[in-house]
Amino acid sequence: MAYNEKLADRTREIISLTHKNVEEKKMFGGLCFMVNDKMCVGVEQERLMVRLDPEKYDEVMEKEGCKPMDFTGRVMKGYVFVDADVLQTKKELAYWIELALEFNKKAKSSKKKK
Fold first, then answer.
1. Phi (first) and psi of residue 49, to 5 degrees
2. What own/partner pairs with CB < 8 Å and gap ≥ 24 does 59-63 have?
3. Cβ within 8 Å of residue 33, ≥6 positions away
4. How far apart are CA 17 and CA 47, in angstroms?
5. Are the CB atoms for 48 and 96 separated by under 8 Å?
6. Residue 69: its pLDDT value, please?
7. How many CB atoms lie within 10 A of CB 58?
8. Strand extents, DSSP E, 4-97
9. How far is the C-alpha of 50 from the C-alpha of 97, rounded, in Å?
10. What distance in Å separates the CA atoms of residue 26 and residue 62, rounded to the nearest whole number?
């Protein structure tokens, strides 16, 4: 199992409550949820990847289980990893997904225009 399927199912359920334009893509050894053609959240192994407003980065780094995303060896501000063991309740998981969905409204699309 390359990614936590239970966490992916829980993530899918929360996103589907409010968003219809959602695409799932396997990438980075996990599953990425694209909302409105923009990377939003991802699930890999035992953690959630969250794309959030870079202005909230320092604030969320104080939260338990939150770590900088350094996928390439360089910290990517505006992206964090959250350990699955601090996402046990729907409320805990929804907090992070809502942060990502809020930023998604103003994030730039990674899709190339034709």
1. -100, 130
2. 60/99
3. 11, 12, 15, 22, 23, 24, 40, 41, 42
4. 22
5. yes
6. 92
7. 9
8. 22-27, 30-35, 38-44, 47-51, 66-68, 79-83
9. 7
10. 29
Question: What is d(CA 32, CA 22) in angstroms, rounded to the nearest whole number?
Answer: 10
Closest CA to 85 of 42, 31, 41, 46: 46
Cα distance between residue 57 and residue 80, in whole Å: 8
Q: How far is 7 from 47, CA to CA, in rounded Å?
A: 8
| pLDDT tens, N- to C-terminus, the chain (114 residues) | 589 999 999 999 999 988 888 999 998 789 999 999 999 999 999 999 999 999 999 999 999 999 999 877 888 889 999 999 999 999 999 999 999 999 999 998 765 655
